[in-house]
Amino acid sequence: MSTFQAPKGTYDLTPPRSATFLAVREAISAPLRDSGYGYIETPGFENVELFARGVGESTDIVTKEMYTLTTKGGDQLALRPEGTASVLRAALEANLHKAGNLPVKLWYSGSYYRYERPQAGRYRHFSQVGAEAIGTEDPVLDAELIILADQAYRSLGLRQFRILLNSLGDKECRPVYREALQTFLRDLDLDEETRRRIEINPLRVLDDKRADVQKQLTDAPKLRDYLCDACKAYHEEVRALITAAGVVFEDDEKLVRGLDYYTRTTFEFVHDGLGSQSAVGGGGRYDGLSEMIGGPELPSVGWALGVDRTVLALEAEGVELDLPATTSVYAVPLGEEARRVLFGVVTELRRAGIAADFAFGGRGLKGAMKSANRSGARYTLVAGERDLAEGVVQLKDMESGEQTAVPLTEAAAELAKRFG
Ligand code: HAM
Prior knowledge:
single chain, alpha+beta, BirA Bifunctional Protein, domain 2, Rossmann fold, 2 domains, five-stranded mixed sheet, 16 helices, 21% strand, binds histidyl-adenosine monophosphate
């Protein structure tokens, strides 16, 4: 161990577990790539104001959890706490919405930062794969995204997740509900901070986990009773489309989400094996966000799935991903001359697209064969002085144990043939 450790709330991804993270990112993005989503990458930091306006001044993310900094030039920046505001900012800046092809469908993968109280499944640096479909109001698009996330989780072998679905209404009906809710909440017995929350973000009070608060909320007005006809019809359509696709979900009228930009469809993927940090992914529609950050009206929908929690969910379910061995051929040289010759063969194999590794450091046969085993390689190439004198290498099939002498000059071609 060195003098230093990873900062609080962070951890390093090291082999072999890091391979699972790569596979999860790959599995989540595969359905998106196959469905017309293009890859987007934005900076790890943005102007603080983008998140203040986009994610919302009243959210915990903006008020408590952002890593902010002032540059030497005086710019106020924040490490990105989420991806949606940045992706929309970038799409607007590149005028993607004017290219005539709406919705603009984008996917991304990267690191996000929130100064949260660390616990199992909650980190200060975490990783998401996300998708945003910008510029179209169409329930089919909401359904598409939910179905693709479901497909991604299923392709990984996850089974114990549930999809919670809700509608938060739009700019017509939500304000009416908000006021009715505020009137109800103001009469309750609540602490100072919660009272303040009633005025800034009353819907979040419904999310309060404390039993004494929940007890008082039984008769709270329900958003469902306030949805306007357009929002109701939209939501019914989303529900019907997901159902038709055979995706099971639960209606959850208490689902609020921790970001302010949502309108209409909101959803969360929760996993029952994860304890309190059970949300493995979440998203929804954000029809007003573009205007909130100074853009034109662009109704949009998206989600982000947490890679860290998805890996924890796999571990909780005991799912072992079928990760193919990264090395196909392992070369074991015995002696100086063999080192040079076999390294040449390894280079040739690699150039031919066959994954090959080498016993470095001139170790003995026993230790080197152990490494060959550990590498998962299907074949080993062993050569000592006598082999070289005869112009051959020993090709060992690690599955059958069968060993054959192959002319040195034909070793690479022979392996290429076997991997066909
Ligand atoms: P979010 O619900 O804040 O949504 O985050 C999405 C997922 O990221 C969570 O479900 C969780 O798996 C993971 N996550 C969030 N915070 C942490 C943390 N501290 N440690 C570990 N994992 C975490 C968003 O970020 C929205 N931008 C999603 C979206 C996209 N909405 C529309 N488009």
